[in-house]
Amino acid sequence: MTATARDGGENTTGADGRPAGLVLEVADLCVDYGIADRALHAVDGVSLSLRRGEVLGIAGESGSGKSTLAYAMNRLLRPPGIITSGDVHYHPKGGGPPVDILGLPEAELRRFRWAEVAMVFQSAMNALNPVMPVRAQITDVLAAHRPEMTRRERNRRMIELLRLVGISPDRAGAYPHELSGGMRQRAMIAIALALEPEIIIMDEPTTALDVVIQRQILTEIMKLRDRLGFSVIFITHDLSLLIELADTIAVMYAGRLVEVARSGELYRAPRHPYSYGLLHSFPLLRGDRKQLSSIPGSPPDLRAVPSGCPFHPRCPHAKDLCTQRVPKLGPVPGSPESGQQAACLLYEQDGIGPPPASLGEREQAHVQ
Amino acid sequence: MAISSSAAQTAADMGVPDAGRVLRRASRLGWLGGLRSGKIIVGLCLLGVFVAAAIFGPLFDHTDPSALSAAQLQPPSAAHWLGTTQTGQDVFAELLNGSRVSLMVGFLSAAIATVLSLVVGLAAGYLGGVVDEVLSVLSNVFLVIPALPLLIVLAGYLPNKGSLSIAAVIAVTGWAWGARVLRAQTLSIRNRDYVEAARLTGESTLRIIFAEILPNEIAIIASGFLFTVIFAILTEAGLAFLGLANVSEWSWGTMLYWAQNGEALQVGAWWWFIPPGLCIALVGTALSLINFGIDEFINPRLRTAGVATKSAAKRLRRQAAAAGPPGGVTVGQTSRAAASSARMQVFTPVARRNRNERGSR
Amino acid sequence: MSSEQPLRSGSDPARKGGGSQSAATAAGNGLDGDVRQPALQATGLTKHYPVRQRGRADLGRRLAVHAVDNVSLSLYPGQVTALVGESGSGKSTVARVLAQSTPASDGTIDLAGKPVRVRRRRPFRKYARHVQLILQDPFSSLNPTHTVNYILARPLRIHRHAHSADEVRAGVARLLEEVNLTPPGQFAEKFPHELSGGQRQRVAVARALAAQPEVLLADEPVSMLDVSIRLSVLNLLQRLVTDRNLALLYITHDIASARYFATTTLVMYAGQLVEGGPSETVTQQPAHPYTQLLIASAPDPEQLEGGAEPTSTGEPPSLVTPPPGCRFHPRCPYVMDICRQTRPPRSELAGGQWAHCWLHASADRDTAHSRGERNE
């Protein structure tokens, strides 16, 4: 099992030869919808690694496969979704052999879920049981996974969790529809934290919320992360949010990873034309008002993914080779030690390089 | 020609379709995609057999079902395919002729009931207010009144008990359910954005109801229609069995009436009462299959019905294994545990091939 | 990288705040001069939704959701005005009241200087010919059983811009070309589910244009689109505003796009307008604490280290029993006693900016009050 190196930094290896601090490794994961001829490749050969305490952001638009990836990692995807290849390995805290999530028998998977990996879904209104008060939903989780806890202990833990996320305990008996959107999302986070997991996967947790509430909740999450030390996989289409929030960002397009970089580097020097285009299409609130540009065309339908590089119909730097060869995610030559990676023929051997200078650096538009 | 094409264009603009356009549009809207469903095909074929038999059968087989003969209570033979009745009448001929009446009454009353439920349901759902209250009370009353006693009473008052009258009477008792369903559906569609957009464009209420909302309810209307056909055929048989229909007119129901009268069950003349019952059951089955097919089609999740269950996941894994390269598949653990668990578990099926065999992608 | 025109209606992109009010309004196409007639003007718009009384009916109190309270605004031809607010602020209700899709509880709407109030179908149709609303969700605003051709032909016929089939066909083609859905013949025959989100929204824009209105109200036109397509749709709207001299009300929750796109920005909170003025000024030097909170909360990639945390918590108030006085006072870090009692009047600030805040209330409060609630 090869551990592909990600954003540099700690490259020290532990006793068993793998880089220290790694908590989740995804290797070459492929997820299809449907079988054989009619299969849609929703996720195509994605490899990622997550370190302890790290915030990994997965950015992409509709059809990019980011949600499918998150659900597949936890084996939460419903048929006709099917994982056709790849590995997902979880490294438990305190050493121990890595757990092959995809190979877990169901009883163990059920034990594994939520205790080690928890998930916060996009729409809390849909994820919370409408006929159970919030407190019951939390104690439910505790009862399922920790049968040795007494009722009193469960209640105590439940109140502790609610306080942790900023919900006052007197609202514990409220039903989901009696709470506002922000509070519902916070309740979801409380449920996710119930068993102190090592990894929390968040699928667009604040998309349906206002920008003010969003800011509050994200601040809350970061504080909790600092305190409890879990890792976060944050999935969203809002790249500007990730740049502020995440340590590492992985950009997905048509089911493939097109760029992986530390957030600062991605912002300053996006290498892939898609990331570049995305970053330039966000209107800035501060700083000089500068030219904005959009990416022509629209994200591809997964039933008709363009040949070769899926981005080539919209790419200003595309050449003929791009319609034939699928670029592989590889290190960008000349990028700093942190190992920024991009999947673009501009950077590959015998590709269509060298990359134009304009792609290297963002326009200097943010001089204060 | 310029004139006719522009007329067609105008017609198209006004939303009045011609057959070719309808089919093309239906196929692109995916409505004909239902034809790929096994259930619908089987149902249609089965129904087709009966309809063809009803229309063409008596043209080929000129045996008069009412003709008395000396061969009484004969079991099926070469001369009489389904045997004879107590009075020597040919059961098969009766069946064939009776199918016309049964099916016609069924479809006709369903058509009347559907039109009624359409008008009431759409008006109540869209207009709301007083109209909704009045129409709802009306449909509630008709829902609550027991159908059979009402039918018996109405049939008793009918001047002539011909099939048309019976059809009308059945329609009167069968429209309320569809009206409730359509009202609910209309209430839901009324709040959709495209209806509001149509209002903002300045469309008239009538056009909104019939050109914006109605096309979105076609599937439900079709499903309701078929359901009502089953109801109508059964009701007609019931009425006839009770002797309330015109017993001298041949239908499956009247066959059962005469069979009952002739004590066919006691005598053991199964060829007399089983065929009509079987026909009713088969037509009902055919219509139900078509209905299920439409249901599946409306809700794509049902297509892989029970897909969230472990058995479907198992099936998927097996299919993936079959589709992949031979000998290179490691299949994820098969499901066994938690049969006792009442909750529906979701475990994505895993059908991993060895990495070095993952050839073309 | 294909770059497009900066997203401002004709004004200099490097301009920072400043400039007099007349310069801002004259920046649009057409008329010069200080006083131009607004294409659409709303004064004191109020919309209360009655809440069904449950429980003790003898309470006698009439409860209502105060969705919109005393909102006044003007839309000028050739200009984009942004209305920014969170969900629940009432901005969508304002759009619907302005479109006369739902009647206002109070206040007046003037179309080209003449007051209008329509209830029945025929007057409404006449009004719809001048004022059109574009809805937010492109995935549900087009009837899935109709082709694009039908969707665009209907408004052409209803508003009598085309009569014969040929005219209709030509009109549909023209509309599709205008929204960059070419070749028009190919798109006219498509059903909505065969189009992408961006294309659907363009069809929605074309449908609104078919009536040939003077005023366009766009309710969050790009929030449900992918990020990479948003700009192109906004650019399209910008071009239409300039080419057809339309007055556009751009409703959004994204204040950053308001800065780029609109000449004037209005900020709404809990059903009331709290601040307004030239977009650059409002976003760079927000006067009202709520606007400051909005701007501090917006994601800002520039602040990689996590910037200053917004200084207030809490959530928007219930609109059934809104707080007395200034509705923001429970969350305001600068709250004073008077804020809890009286709603602040409109205070004019420099450069055409104004705010309803006691922090900025001029000493001469009576003058501010008597000038009335007008947004010039």
Shape, principal axes of CA atoms of chain B: globular
The chain pair with the largest interface is: A-C, 50 and 53 residues
Strand order of the largest sheet of chain B: 1-2
User: CATH H level of the largest domain in chain B: which superfamily?
Assistant: MetI-like
In terms of quaternary structure, the protein is heterotrimer
Distance between the termini of chain A: 47 Å
Rg of chain B to the nearest angstrom? Answer: 27 Å
Number of helices of chain A: 10
The sequence of SSEs of chain B as H and E is HHHHHHHHHHHHHHHEE
What would the CATH topology of the largest domain in chain B be?
Answer: MetI-like fold
> Tell me about the biggest sheet of chain B?
2 strands, antiparallel
Largest sheet of chain A: 8 strands, mixed
Instruction: List the secondary-structure elements of chain A in sequence, H or E.
Output: EEEHEEHEHHHHEHEHEEHHEE
What is the typical, i.e. mean, pLDDT of chain B? 77
Mean pLDDT of chain A: 82
Write the layout of secondary structure elements.
The complex is a heterotrimer of chains A (368), B (361) and C (376).
Chain A: E1 22-33, E2 40-51, E3 55-59, H1 66-73, E4 81-90, E5 99-100, H2 106-112, E6 117-120, H3 124-127, H4 134-145, H5 151-165, H6 181-193, E7 199-203, H7 211-228, E8 231-236, H8 239-245, E9 248-253, E10 256-262, H9 263-268, H10 273-279, E11 330-331, E12 341-342
Parallel strand pairs in A: 3-8, 3-9, 6-7, 7-8
Antiparallel strand pairs in A: 1-2, 1-4, 4-5, 9-10, 10-12, 11-12
Chain B: H1 2-13, H2 19-28, H3 38-60, H4 91-127, H5 129-144, H6 147-157, H7 163-174, H8 176-190, H9 193-201, H10 205-213, H11 218-241, H12 252-261, H13 264-267, H14 270-298, H15 310-323, E1 329-331, E2 351-353
Antiparallel strand pairs in B: 1-2
Chain C: H1 21-26, E1 40-50, E2 64-75, E3 79-84, H2 91-98, E4 106-111, E5 114-116, H3 121-128, E6 131-134, H4 148-158, H5 165-178, H6 184-188, H7 197-210, E7 215-219, H8 227-244, E8 247-252, H9 255-261, E9 264-269, E10 272-278, H10 279-284, H11 289-297, H12 337-341, E11 346-348, E12 354-356, H13 365-370
Parallel strand pairs in C: 3-8, 3-9, 6-7, 7-8
Antiparallel strand pairs in C: 1-2, 1-4, 4-5, 9-10, 10-12, 11-12
